[in-house]
Each structure stands twice: as structure tokens, then as C-alpha cells.
Design goal:
- The complex is a heterodimer of chains A (239) and B (269).
- With 239 residues, chain A is an alpha+beta fold.
- Chain A has one domain.
- Chain A has helices at residues 5-51, 91-104, 138-141, 147-164, 215-218, 223-228, 232-235, and strands at 62-70, 78-86, 120-125, 130-135, 170-175, 193-194.
- In chain A, helix 2 (91-104) crosses helix 4.
- Chain B is an alpha/beta fold and 269 residues long.
- Chain B has 2 domains: 1-37; 66-258, Aminopeptidase (3-Layer(aba) Sandwich), CATH 3.40.630.
- In chain B, helix 4 links the parallel strand 4 (153-157) and strand 5.
- The chains are: A alpha+beta (239), B alpha/beta (269).
Chain lengths: 239, 269
């Protein structure tokens, strides 16, 4: 059968279209993937940019801030390092300033308690003194997994807040805005930690000695105490 | 000719339809399979009371007194736990440690219930439920750290917790460990003391940490963490296993006479 000429042209055009599509499809797919990745990155960047304007303001009065990093004794304890920092008097801003300094890490990087790529995304302080600190996912994914390392991370955050922001009574840690069961498979993040359990204790920290002794009382999961406030008998036993 | 074009178009449409049906069928199958998976790994019995979770598959307490050890090799399945640079995974090593701990405990006359045998990953609550369903049990969870001086071992117990009571007098699930904290500390001190003798550089006393696994366990419960997955040669960890097993078994045996077992599973000590 002899095909009319226009039909040959038609078939050739179809064939050409198929070839072009076959070449273009993988390129298109790659572009879509790249665009998705770019979007993820920019979301994270945008969030960081929004939540990072807590730069230290040199006009603020300089105070001796106590930042808790690893004690270096390789025994899972943290100890205070006194740093002269201009800190705001506003508790949320002050908390952001000290936590960002804590995340930046000590001079001796071996004494770090938090991963270098972790960032504080948001910090809220509720009227009852409950602080909500929202960290980026790197806090959970980059920290060395284990009871000791995870407890040190939480200790350093809680004790640093305790020493510098007296308004904070309890600390709840979120990872990328989400409540998580554990930090990296061990330490319980589903409950809040008690901070500043014993009211003003400024004198105790002056020496900068390892402050592990009071850890047991300070880092008790706290939402139990909050819930129990309604039950007079059991609530009265808790400080 | 027009007819030919019609036929051509119809062929294409019918082929496309059959492909579309095939894709649709695959999607339906995939969705059905995916919806079954999370049901199997259901966890977190929210608001559950500890005595209300008996696990029928577990052996019941045979006699009064402490005679059961619920042994928990941590992590498992897709959760590898701590990972060393030499390809050492916490989830594998704890299983091997658990086997030796089990033998040592059985030699001391304990009945051992393991929360996992193979590469499964029960939820924290499922693991706690295995201990909470027993009468006269203690709970020991075994971990390998990614920090700490290699060749040392630490025992952790939960921090002091507010012991809540609800209207029924039962222990709330999310604070199940609260009434047992002081007993856990006694057990932990026994084991830590023996570990410190065996592994130089280990602390002399038990430490406290908010370990998620311990919080929902209504029994004297400790976490034993061994350092660490960072060792160059896995044999270094393997060499520690008999010493750790012996310390745990002898510590549990020393703790046995001091523990007055509650009358019912999940009851206050």
C-alpha cells in the first residue's frame, strides 16, 4: 500500500515528537527534583533568617553570663564558663542570646555539648514560666546518640537558661517545631524539664565548678507537676 | 482514510485506558499495603494504666518474690542506635550482650524475658508493657554509647518523679517509674559498684538521666550503657560482655532480698 505523501510527513512529525519527548523527559524530571530541593533549602533558610535576628546588641549592659559546656572530665558532667556578654533584659531575647552563644560553642571545640550545625529556630516563654525552645533537626540528627551525650546536651541547655534567665521555670524542647519522644533515641523529650527548681541560687554558680550535683532535682520531667497541681494531696509533696 | 485515523485514535485511547487501569490497580494495591503496615506497629497506649496491659504471650510469675528479669536490648529494626565509624551498630551489639547477660542471670536462678530476640524494634511502651505485666520483675535495658571513655560502663536510673495517683489508685502509665525510683537506685548502685570494680574509670555510683524507656516501666528499672561504638576493633566491646553480664547478674542477685514484691503487677511497691 502506498501511503499518500502527507501521511509520511504526519508519521515523521509524530516520530520526531516522540524522540524530542524522550530526550526532554529526563531533563524535566531532573529540573523538578532540583526545584524541590531548592524549595526545601530556601524554606529552612527563610525560617533561620526570620528567627535569627537575635544578634548581640553592644548597647545592652554587659553581664557575666554562665554558659554550660562539657566539663572535660569525660564523666558526662557540664560546668559553667563565665563569658562577658551584653544581654538584653527582656527574657525571651536574653534566652535567645545565651542559647545562640551556647550553640556557637566553647573555644575548645572538644567541650561542645550541642552539634555545630544545630540552630535555635524559635523561643517562647509562656506566662507560667514554661519556656519552649525549638531547635533545628540537626540537634537530633547530628548529636552522638547515647544516654550520656543526650543528657549532657539537655543539661547544658537547661542549666544555661537557669543561670541566665531566672524567669524560666520549665523547659520544653521541640525539634523543628515538632514534639518528639526522644532526642536521639534515649533521652525523654516528651515531658518538660524543671528549671530553677530552687529559686535564686546565684551564689552556687560563682565558682564555675562542675554543677552535676543538683542535676537530679533540676532536670526532673515537669509536666507531671503541672498536671498534679489540681490534686492537692500529691501536689503538696512536690516543691 | 478518515476511518483509518479514527481506528488509529481509538487504538491509542484503548491502550492508554488499559495502562491507566493498570496504574490505578497498582496504586490501590500499594495504598492497601501501606495502610496495613502502621497498624502492625501501633504503639503508645495513651492514657493506659500499667496493670491493664497484660501480655498473654509472657510467662506469668511463678512464685512470690523477685524472680523475673525483663532484659531489653535497646533499638533494633531500622533504629540502629549509636553508630561507630567502623560500622559498629548499637542495635547489633546489645543483642550479643543480652545473650550473655541472659545466661549469667539464669545461672543466678532468674527467669529472663527478652523484649526482642532478633532485629525487631518494639516501641518504648511495648517494651515497658512486658515488664509491667509481670509480678516480681526488674527491668534492665542495655545500651552502647557513642561517647565516654572506651572500656567503661555506667548505670542510669530515672530522676525523681512526682508520683501521681488517679481516682482508681493505679499508677499512671506515663509516670509508671515514679514509685520505683528509689528501688531502681538501689539496684543501680549494686550493679554500678560491680561494674566499677571490673571496668576501671567507670563511676562508683549510679547516675540519673531522663531515659524515655525507664519512665513508663512499673518495676525497679536501670539502663546500663557501655562505652563505646567508637572503638576501632569490635573485639574490644566483645571482651567487655562477660564482665558486664556478671556484674548485672550478681547485682540483681544482691538486690533480690531487699525487694518486697507488690501483690499485683503494676501495683506500688
Amino acid at each position: 500500500m502506498i501511503l499518500p505523501r502527507w501521511r509520511w510527513w504526519f508519521l515523521a512529525a509524530l516520530f520526531l515528537a516522540v524522540v524530542i519527548a524522550a530526550i526532554y523527559l529526563p531533563i524535566l524530571r531532573r529540573n523538578i527534583k532540583q526545584a524541590a530541593k531548592l524549595q526545601q533549602r530556601t524554606e529552612e533558610q527563610a525560617r533561620r533568617e526570620l528567627t535569627q535576628p537575635t544578634v548581640i546588641n553592644p548597647a545592652d549592659p554587659k553581664v557575666k553570663a554562665k554558659l554550660y559546656w562539657a566539663s572535660g572530665a569525660d564523666d558526662g558532667t557540664v560546668s559553667a564558663v563565665t563569658v562577658d556578654l551584653p544581654l538584653s533584659n527582656e527574657p525571651v531575647l536574653r534566652a535567645k542570646q545565651v542559647l545562640n552563644t551556647l550553640l556557637a560553642g566553647p573555644v575548645d571545640t572538644e567541650l561542645r555539648t550541642l552539634p555545630p550545625d544545630a540552630a535555635l529556630l524559635a523561643f517562647y516563654l509562656l506566662p507560667d514560666g514554661t519556656a519552649i525552645a525549638d531547635f533545628s533537626e540537626a540537634l537530633a540528627t547530628s548529636i552522638p546518640s547515647g544516654i550520656e551525650s543526650e543528657q549532657m546536651a539537655v543539661d547544658s541547655i537547661a542549666k544555661t537558661l537557669e543561670a541566665n534567665v531566672p524567669q524560666v521555670r520549665r523547659l520544653k524542647i521541640l525539634i523543628h517545631g515538632q514534639e518528639t519522644e526522644t532526642l536521639a533515641g534515649h533521652l525523654d523529650l516528651s515531658q518538660a524539664f524543671v528549671v530553677n527548681a530552687v529559686a535564686p541560687r546565684a551564689a552556687a554558680d560563682v565558682s564555675g565548678a562542675p554543677a552535676s550535683t543538683s542535676a537530679a532535682q533540676q532536670l526532673t520531667p515537669a509536666d507531671t507537676a503541672v498536671k498534679l497541681a489540681a490534686i492537692p494531696n500529691s501536689a503538696s509533696t512536690k516543691p | 482514510m478518515l476511518l483509518d485515523v479514527g481506528l488509529f485514535v481509538r487504538n491509542i485511547i484503548s491502550r492508554r485506558l488499559s495502562v491507566a487501569f493498570f496504574v490505578l490497580a497498582v496504586c490501590v494495591f500499594a495504598v492497601a499495603a501501606a495502610s496495613q503496615a502502621p497498624q502492625q506497629s501501633s504503639a503508645a497506649p495513651a492514657g493506659q494504666q500499667s496493670p491493664a496491659s497484660p501480655n498473654a504471650a509472657l510467662p506469668a510469675a511463678v512464685a512470690a518474690g523477685l524472680n523475673i528479669v525483663v532484659l531489653d536490648p535497646a533499638h533494633g529494626g531500622t533504629d540502629l542506635g549509636a553508630r561507630g565509624t567502623g560500622g559498629i551498630h548499637e542495635s547489633d551489639i546489645v543483642l550479643e550482650f543480652a545473650a550473655q547477660v541472659r545466661t549469667a542471670l539464669e545461672a543466678q536462678g532468674f527467669q529472663v524475658v527478652q523484649t526482642r530476640q532478633g532485629n525487631a524494634n518494639p516501641s518504648f511502651d511495648d517494651r515497658s508493657a512486658m515488664a509491667n505485666a509481670q509480678r516480681g520483675a526488674i527491668f534492665i535495658t542495655v545500651h552502647i554509647a557513642s561517647t565516654g571513655t572506651p572500656g567503661t560502663a555506667r548505670v542510669y536510673v530515672m530522676n525523681d518523679m512526682a508520683a501521681g495517683v488517679d481516682a482508681t489508685g493505679l499508677i499512671p502509665w506515663d509516670r509508671a517509674q515514679a514509685p520505683f525510683v528509689s528501688l531502681s537506685r538501689k539496684l543501680g548502685d549494686q550493679v554500678q559498684g560491680l561494674l566499677a570494680q571490673r571496668f576501671k574509670g567507670s563511676p562508683a555510683n549510679v547516675q540519673t538521666a531522663s531515659v524515655r524507656q525507664l519512665r513508663t516501666t512499673a518495676a525497679p528499672a536501670i539502663a546500663v550503657e557501655i562505652s563505646s561504638v567508637t572503638v576501632e576493633d569490635r573485639a574490644q566491646l566483645d571482651h567487655m560482655a562477660p564482665g558486664v553480664a556478671d556484674a548485672i547478674a550478681r547485682g540483681a542477685a544482691a538486690f533480690r532480698p531487699t525487694y518486697v514484691v507488690p501483690a499485683n503487677p503494676g501495683e506500688r511497691p
